[in-house]
TrEMBL record:
It is a multi-pass membrane protein. It comes from Urochloa decumbens. InterPro entries: NCS2. GO terms for cellular component: membrane. This is Nucleobase-ascorbate transporter 6. Belongs to the nucleobase:cation symporter-2 (NCS2) (TC 2.A.40) family. The keyword Transmembrane helix applies.
Length: 483
């Protein structure tokens, strides 16, 4: 989780005008709220061992807020940072209403009931594979650190368990905890040994363990609290753009929840439980806005992959982990020390975790008839468009400085550009639309799309195991029944 928690504020806070102290507080706040949101999701949401954390989906509208004209004239950097953070808070508070309403009203339950294994496969696959740019390209920013971490992780997780049989479960479950300290120490020795003394600034930033500036800027003990940056400010255009990001996060989290249920050895998640989880994720985004994390929340894709790597799909483990998040966020210096891990080490982990998350989507193809040309078309076309359309939007933006949709209405531009820059959203939308419109009522199509495999999981009550995996604690199912 520290990868996303550190990378996003490190990129955004300096653009807002914040210093190292501000960055340290934002990281603390993001980790603190992530712990709370994870506990809420595991107790009252889907009840799956899903970690809720910062999301790259919300970065684009946040950058749009940073570049807004009304902040450009502010001469004082710290005042500018506070004003932008308050604007981001207001946009997140409004955007949270989308997931809260769609989730708790049951609207998303009705959408999810038409999801088949065929339409779920591209969505879940691109939730993982769609983040490929955060993998090896980031490893290569400091190849002498990132590549050893990747190689060691593969050796510890895949080879050693079958070589040293007595310690098989140890290597299976703790490969990450073994390899990170080894490579982190190696990176520290390179740093203190002067290996990067004359290196370019970019190389030093990615490779050194002392470049984050967080240890000096972080307070020893600090408890984040609501409205710590001041009263939120609201702007309609920014709220609409953030709402589009919230909708994309909703779709991506749907795919991540499905992957988590798969790797946690739970039954396919019932639509009503999925809708409940989306509602609680909306509560999480509301908390992001109230506390001022500068970023919205969604299901952590890397932790979905971690379930597959460790084979530990325990709700209790995730709840204890959430407790550690809260603990380290309050003890700022401890969290800052962990945050000094170079980003290429996290990127190496992503290569494994995102691959596992994406392969969960490919696993759903076993329920489909891959000899059907209808299946081939929907699968191939949705995956291709899911990769191709966002690539066009991203390339256009990198060259022109703005997205392909460039009208006089900035909030409309942000909404459309955010939607079509998400690979998982485009793939999932295309697959869902085609799967539910092309020859849907033909007798053979139902079996081709694998819909009959999920029939018994369309309702909470039709499978006795739903109580085991998804029932609410404290006998709350009596007051909030699932259907």
């Amino acid at each position: 989780m520290l990868g996303t928690t550190v990378i996003i504020p490190t990129a955004l806070v300096p653009q807002m005008g914040g210093n190292n102290e501000d960055k340290a507080v934002v990281i603390q706040t993001l980790l603190f709220v992530a712990g709370i949101n994870t506990l809420l999701q595991s107790f009252f949401g889907t009840r799956l061992p899903a970690v809720i954390g910062g999301s790259y989906t919300f970065v684009m509208p946040t950058i749009s807020i940073i570049l807004a004209g009304r902040y450009a004239s502010e001469p004082n950097p710290h005042t500018k940072f506070l004003r932008i953070m308050r604007g981001t808070q207001g946009a997140l508070i409004v955007a949270s209403a989308l997931q809260i309403i769609v989730g708790f009203s049951g609207l998303w339950r009705n959408v999810a009931r038409y999801l088949s294994p065929l339409s779920a496969a591209p969505l879940v696959a691109l939730v993982g594979f769609g983040l490929y740019e955060l993998g090896f390209p980031s490893v290569a920013k400091c190849i002498e650190i990132g590549l050893p971490e990747l190689i060691l992780l593969v050796i510890f997780a895949m080879y050693l368990p079958h070589t040293v049989h007595m310690l098989k479960s140890i290597f299976d479950r703790f490969a990450v905890l073994f390899t990170i300290p080894i490579v982190w120490l190696y990176a520290y020795l390179l740093t203190v040994g002067g290996a990067y003394r004359n290196a370019p600034p970019k190389t030093q930033f990615h490779c050194r363990t002392d470049r984050s500036g967080l240890i000096g800027g972080a307070p020893w003990i600090r408890v984040p609290y609501p409205f710590q940056w001041g009263a939120p400010t609201f702007d309609a255009g920014e709220a609409f753009a953030m709402m589009a990001a919230s909708f994309v996060a909703l779709v991506e989290s749907t795919g991540a929840f499905i992957a988590v249920s798969r790797y946690a050895s739970a039954t396919p998640i019932p639509p009503s439980v999925l809708s409940r989880g989306i509602g609680w994720q909306g509560i999480g985004i509301l908390l992001d806005g109230l506390f001022g994390t500068g970023n919205g929340s969604s299901v952590s894709v890397e932790n979905a992959g971690l379930l597959a790597l460790t084979r530990v799909g325990s709700r209790r483990v995730v709840q204890i982990s959430a407790g550690f998040m809260i603990f380290f966020s309050i003890l700022g210096k401890f969290g800052a020390v962990f945050a000094s891990i170079p980003a290429p080490i996290f990127a190496a982990l992503y290569c494994i975790f995102f691959a596992y998350a994406g392969s969960a989507g490919l696993g759903f193809l076993q329920f489909c008839n891959l000899n059907s040309f209808r299946t081939k078309f929907i699968l191939g076309f949705s995956v291709f468009m899911g990769l191709s359309v966002p690539q066009y939007f991203n390339e256009y933006t990198s060259v022109a400085g703005y997205g392909p949709v460039h009208t006089h209405s900035r909030w409309f531009n942000d909404m459309i550009n955010v939607l079509f820059s998400s690979k998982a959203f485009v793939a999932g939308f295309v697959a869902y639309l085609l799967d539910n419109t092309i020859h849907r009522h033909e007798s053979s199509v139902r079996r081709d799309r694998g819909y009959h495999w999920w029939d018994k999981f369309r309702s909470y009550r039709t499978d006795t195991r739903s109580e085991e995996f998804y029932s609410l604690p404290f006998n709350l199912n009596k007051f909030f029944p699932s259907v």
